[in-house]
Amino acid sequence: MYRTGPKSASVLETASHTLRSAVLEEFRNNKVRKYELKDICGYMVEFSTDQHGSRFIQQKLETATLDEKQLVFQEVLPNSLSLMTDVFGNYVIQKFFEHGNQMQKLKLAKQMETHVLVLSLQMYGCRVVQKALEHVVTEQQASIVRELDGNVLKCVKDQNGNHVIQKAIERVSAEHIKFIIDAFHGQVFNLATHPYGCRVIQRMFEHCTESQTRPLLDELHKFTTGLVQDQYGNYVIQHVMERGQPQDRSRVCACIRGHVLQLSKHKFASNVVEKCIAYGEPEDRKALIAEIVAVRRDGISNLVVMMKDQYANYVVQKMLDVVDEQQRDMILSKIQPHISTLRKFTYGKHLISKVEKYQGIDESSKPSASPEPGPPEPQATPRSSGRAPTSSGSTGYPRSHGSAK
């Protein structure tokens, strides 16, 4: 008789040992016999809920013949819904979406009907839903995602459901996910500042059409100043700078101009300033750099303040990477008198390395020039900057920071 699989490996090993069939027990203990799928007929479901049995079935399905796959499938199908939420069984179902024929995929998708929301919010079920969206035909994709209508925001803010929404945005055609995009209207700020919502917003900007994203981008721009200073929102604005249209990049830069020093010294906003320096339109980039290097009324330039700040020094480093040779020489000449001071700080050493890279010499061997006037030096106690990482490449996911994965 089918026994519901345990929910964790530890439970499996301790509580269910005496409940294993003789066939599974023999399989686990016999290290000599070479098992085939036909050897476990009648026990496919039990094997699927066992750590070692599940792995065995998964490996065999990758190279199994059509008949062998059907042998497994006919036993698994009646219990497939339970297996989808099982710690080990879900992997067997995923393998059928990957390696099964269209009829098998269709039947598994039918088993999911009316249960998609529950599966999407469950730790293992959400993986099956994602795998289904990757491998079923368009009509089935539409049927699956349709069940989430009315619960989009609930899924977006759920640690499991957000992955299903992301996958739907990535894989399902625009006409079938219109209800997802519609649910975001008026919610952009709340989603962009949410640990899971910020990921979903980025996927939407990557995969949806201009007509779908434009109203949401316009809504986003209303909150740029707040978002750049938010632990999650800054990732969304970084994403706009990296992948957005020129008009959107310019709108972000416009919010930064006049506040470069303040935002560069901010743990999260400094990431966005970096992206503006790296990806801004030429005129926007020129204006930001001019604001950094200009000498203020007090005789101090923002550059001097920024290069001694634990966050803003990263902006200075990025600036050195993107300016032309003439500008770089000018900036290096302003940094050089402060090298000895920068050596006292952990975060200063990174900037020194960048300077020496471009000068092609070891500046420690040169006498220091008189430094440009500046504010009182910070306490020279080495410490970790604790700076938030910049956005993580093509995925756009926040790295290990806060509650984000």
Automatic annotation (TrEMBL):
Compositionally skewed regions (Pro residues) per UniProt: 370-379
Annotated GO biological process: nuclear-transcribed mRNA catabolic process, deadenylation-dependent decay
SUPFAM superfamilies: ARM repeat (SSF48371)
Cellular component GO terms held in the UniProt record: cytoplasm
Entry keyword set: Cytoplasm, Repeat, RNA-binding
Gene Ontology terms for molecular function: mRNA 3'-UTR binding
Gene3D superfamilies assigned to the protein according to its UniProt record, in alphabetical order: Leucine-rich Repeat Variant (1.25.10.10)
SMART domains, A to Z: Pumilio (SM00025)
Subcellular location: Cytoplasm
Positions annotated as Pumilio repeat: 36-74, 75-110, 111-146, 147-182, 183-218, 219-254, 255-290, 291-333
Region ranges (Disordered): 358-405
Sequence similarity: Belongs to the PUF3 family.
Official protein name in the record: Pumilio homology domain family member 3
